[in-house]
Amino acid sequence: MKRLGPIDLVALGEGRTFDVDGERIAVFRTRDGQVFATQADCPHRGGPLADGIVGAASVICPLHARRFDLASGACRGDDCAPLKTYPIEIRDGALFLVEERAPLHLAP
Amino acid sequence: MSRKERLVVIGNGMAGARFVEELIARGGRNRYEITIFGDESTGNYNRILLSGVLAGTHTAHDIFLNPLPWYAQNGVTLHAGHRVSGIDTNLRVVHAGEVAAPYDKLVIATGSSAFVPPIEGLRRDGQLVDGAFVFRTLDDCSAIRKHAERARRAAVIGGGLLGLEAAKGLLGFGLSVHVVHLASHLMEMQLDAPAGRILARSVAAMGARVSLETATVAVRGEPVSELVFADGSSEPCDLLVIATGIRPNVDLARAAGLAVGRGITVDDGLQTSDPNVFAIGECAEHRQTMYGLVAPLWDQARVLAERFVARDASCTSYRGSKTSTKLKVAGIELAVMGERDGDEPDDEVVTYSEPARGIYKKMIVRDGKLVGAILLGDASSASTLLSAFDRADPVPEARGELLFPAVAGGGACKVEDLADDAQICNCNGVTKGAIVQAVRAGKRSLKMLCDATRAGTGCGSCKGQVEQLLAHEAGDAVTEDPSIHWYVPGVPLTKPELVAEIVARGLRSVSAVFAELAAGKEDPASKPGLASLLKTMWGSAYEDERDARFVNDRVHANIQRDGTFSVIPRIFGGVTSADELRRIADVSDKYGAKMIKITGGQRIDLLGLPKDELPNVWRDLGMPSGHAYTKAFRTCKTCVGSEFCRYGVGDSTKLGIAIEKRFQGLEAPAKVKFATAGCPRNCSEATVKDVGVVAIEGGRWEIWVGGGAGSRVRKADLLCIVDSHDEVLRISGRFLQYYREQAKWLERTYDFVERVGIEALQKIVVEDSEGIAARLDAEMQRAVDAYVDPWREAEEPVHPTQFASLIPVSSLVKKAAGGPR
Fold this sequence. Notes:
The structure holds two protein chains of two kinds. By secondary structure, chain A is mostly beta strands. Chain A has no helices and eleven strands. By secondary structure, chain B is an alpha/beta fold. Chain B contains 24 helices and 43 strands. In chain B, a hairpin with a 2-residue loop joins strand 11 (123-124) and strand 12 (127-128).
C-alpha cells in the first residue's frame, strides 16, 4: 500500500496528477464517492487526463476529447489505446495505491 | 420486477422490425418478452432498395436490415413465413396456423400489399396469370428477374414511383419497356404537372415509351402475350408489371373487430380501438392520414417504443409527420416535401425549369416559411431545403439561394463524386472512404456517424458534407438522433423545456440537474453547457460546482497541447500603456514564457506557463483576466478612430473600451467577439464579428450582428443604426442577453442569427415587439453587476490543489499521517 495523502487533495468530481516515485499517476474522485487511478497522460497525444472532465466513471481528455472508462481504462470509440489503471482505495480519509507486489500482512 | 409482459408484433417489415429495434435500444427487453410474426420467410429488409435488386445493382443480401440471426441474438422470437390467421382480442391470443401466441400487448404492422385493378384476363382463380407480376417483395423481384430472361416486350401499368423503378430495372435487361399510365402526368401523387412532363421526357430519354391517360382494359394470353387499351388498340407484351398503388392490409384487424377506416384507426398514442392493441406503419390511419413514406413510419416506431418503456406513457405522443422524401426515381434524383401545389391566395411559388437537362425546382413559401418543394433532376440543395422545411426556418429573402446552393457560396462539386481517399474532415483527417464505410456499417444518423468517425467533431465546418454523404449512402434509411434538438446530449430536453424545468424545480447546480432531469445519470460531456446555462439563469444564486467546468474555467487560462497554459490579460479595447507593457515583459522573463504573441483579437498572449505559476503570474501582472479561454465575451477589436485617424468619423477606441469594460467575462453559449470601426473602411473587420459597430457620418453607429470569420465566414446582418455610445451599449447588450437566453450550447451568433432571422431579431431587440426589452436590459445589468474578476482566485483559491500540476508523493517523505499501518 502506498499512501498518496488525504482524499481532499483531489477536489470532488475532479482529478489530480501525483508523482509516485517518478511515475505520473492520475487520481480521480467521482461525485458518487468512488476513486480511480490511471496513467496520467492520454495515449492519444499526451494530454493531462487529470485536467479532464469526470462523470459516469469516465474522463474526457481536455485536449482532443477522447473519453476513457476509469475502471477498465478502455477508450470509448476504440480509436485509442486503453489506459493503464491502478487499484486504489480510500482508508480513514486517505488515498492508498494498492501495490500489487505488496506483502499481504501489511494490509490491516 | 414482476413477470415480463408478452409483446407480440404482427409484421416483420420496415415498421414492425424498426419498432422492435427502437424498443430494444431503449432497454425494452427488460420489460417485454418479444415475439414477431413475419409473412415472408426472411429477416427484415429495406423495401426501398428492392428496385436495386431488380436492376441488379444490389443483391438480396445487401438490403437486409435485420438478417435472421439478429433476432436470436437480441432475444426476439421470430416466426418467419407464418401468416397470422386471426387475433382473439378477448383472450388476447394471436393465431398463425398451429402457433398460438398469447399477448399482453399487440402491435399490428401488417403494412400494405399491391393493389391490382380489375382488368379482364389479368387473373385466373384469384392469382395473376403467368407473365404478370406485382412488385412488392423480394420474391416478386426474383420472379420478375427470372421471367425477364426470356421476355422481349415489357409493359408496366402505373407511372408512379414504383412503376418507374420497375421500368428502369426492366430496361436494364435489354427489354423494350412501355409505361402505361392512367393519369395525365407521371407521379401525380408527388409531382405537379410541369414536373411530371419533365420526368416523362427524362424517362423517355432512357429508352422507355410513356403513354399517359391510357387505360388498360384487357390482358390476353397465358402466359401474357397482348395488352388491350380503352381506345381499342392493342400491342404485344410478354412481361407485365402491375404498379398501380398499394392497399393497406387491414383484414386481420377488421376481423378482430378493431375500428378500421381506410386503415386501422389509431389515436395519438398509436392505440387502436382496443387498449391493448396498437398499429403503426402503412396499415395505420392517424388523424385521417395514411403514410406511405418511410420517415413517418419510423417516427411512429420511435414514439411507440418510447411509450412502451416510459413510466408515464403520456410523455410522448404521435402528432403526425411532415412528409418529405429524397430518393432516386429510375436513377433520376428527386426530393419532394410538404405541399405540391400551393393554392392559398398569398402563397409565393418559386419555380425553375430546365427541360433539356431534366431539371425542375419548385418552392412554395407561405408567411416566409417553406411549406412545400419539388426538386427533380438535381437534388443538390435537398438537404438545405429539407432542414428549412422540417424546422420551419425563415426562407432567405433571395429565394434562389435555397434552390441554388452554389449561388449562396456552397461548393458546386458533389461530395459523393469525390475519390475515396479525399479528406472530408480537415481537422481530424477523416476520408470520404472512412465515412462511407461507417454508414454501411450501420451509422445512420449524423450524430452517430460523426461520433464514430470523428468527422465534424473539430471545427464542424465539414458537417454539411458528412450529411450529404450520409444522405447519398443511406437514402431514406437516414435517421435523426433526437439529441440534436436537446440543449446538451445528456439531458433529454430542448433548451426552452430545460429552462422551464430548472425554474419550476429550482435547480441551482449541475448535479441537481442530473439528479432530477437525467435520472441521476451524469454525462461529463454535458457538464460545461449546463454550468454555463445555470450561471446565466441564476447569476449569483448559482451553486458553482467546479468539476462541471472545463479545465480552462477551473484555472482561468487556456490549456495548450503540452499541458501548459496561455495567459492573456485584459487590455481594454486593445489600448495599453508603457507601464503595462513593462510589467508584461517582466512577468514573461520571470516565469519563462515560451512565446509572447499578439493575438488575432489585438491582445498579448504569454504562452507556455505552468499551471502552478498562474496565481503568481496574475498577481505580478496586476491586470484583470482577458477571458480568452472561455465561452464568454472575449474582446472588442478596435481601429484607431476619430481621435487620430484622418478618416475617422467616430471615436471607436473609446467605444471599444466602454464595451469591453461593460461586457468583460459575460458568459455566453459560445465565445463572443466584438469590434468597433471608426468609419465604413472598417479596418477592425467589424462586419465579420458577432457584434460589430461601425461609425457613419453624422455621429451615428451601425450595429451589425451574427458575423464571423472562422471555420465559417459570414457577413453580419445590420440590426439597426443608433445615435450614441450609450445606445450601442444598450442595444448590443439587449441582443447579447437574448442570445444568451435563446441560443443552443456552442451555437455561435452566426448560426443563431441565421436560425432566428434578422427581421425577427430587429422586431424583438429594436422594436420590442414582445415587450421583453426592459426585462432583457435589466437581466443584462444584473449580469454586468455580478461580474467578478476570476484572477482574484490568486489570493483566494477555491481548492488547495487547484493549480497543482503534479502532487509529489515519495516513499521517502511519509510524514503527514505516517505510512500504512
